[in-house]
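Run log // design_07
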């Protein structure tokens, strides 16, 4: 029986970007469109489709997610070469989101980021390199 080749959802270039600091924008819409920011260094990839983000504020994002769990995330770094050796690259991520206020995911993230009050858990449904 031939093994099926499975393509990774999160490409290596994306993981490389996370090794360098940069701003992350998280877009949600439900009650009202909203954008909130965080940092590359705060994103924790737990497997090939989940990104965990410590949340301290993000209250409007949480209200939106209760109505519509879809989010878009953009991030990048000028330290990672992009297409055609362009100095810098970025990504746009589509996903669904939920929050954790307790449990093993919360506990693991609380150890890393003592300031968090909740954890934003994004299941990646699509990713595109933008530059």
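design_07 sequence
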């Amino acid at each position: 029986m031939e093994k099926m080749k499975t393509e990774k959802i999160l490409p290596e270039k994306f993981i490389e970007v996370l090794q360098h600091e940069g701003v992350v924008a998280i877009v949600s819409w439900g009650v009202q469109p909203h954008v909130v920011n965080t940092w590359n260094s705060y994103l924790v990839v737990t497997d090939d489709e989940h990104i965990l983000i410590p949340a301290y504020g993000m209250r409007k994002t949480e209200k939106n997610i209760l109505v519509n769990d879809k989010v878009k995330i953009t991030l990048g770094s000028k330290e990672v070469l992009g297409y055609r050796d362009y100095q810098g690259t970025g990504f746009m991520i589509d996903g669904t989101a939920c929050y954790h206020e307790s449990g093993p995911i919360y506990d693991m993230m609380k150890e890393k980021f003592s300031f968090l009050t909740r954890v934003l858990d994004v299941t990646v449904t699509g990713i595109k390199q933008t530059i």
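Residues 1-5 have pLDDT under 50 and may be disordered.
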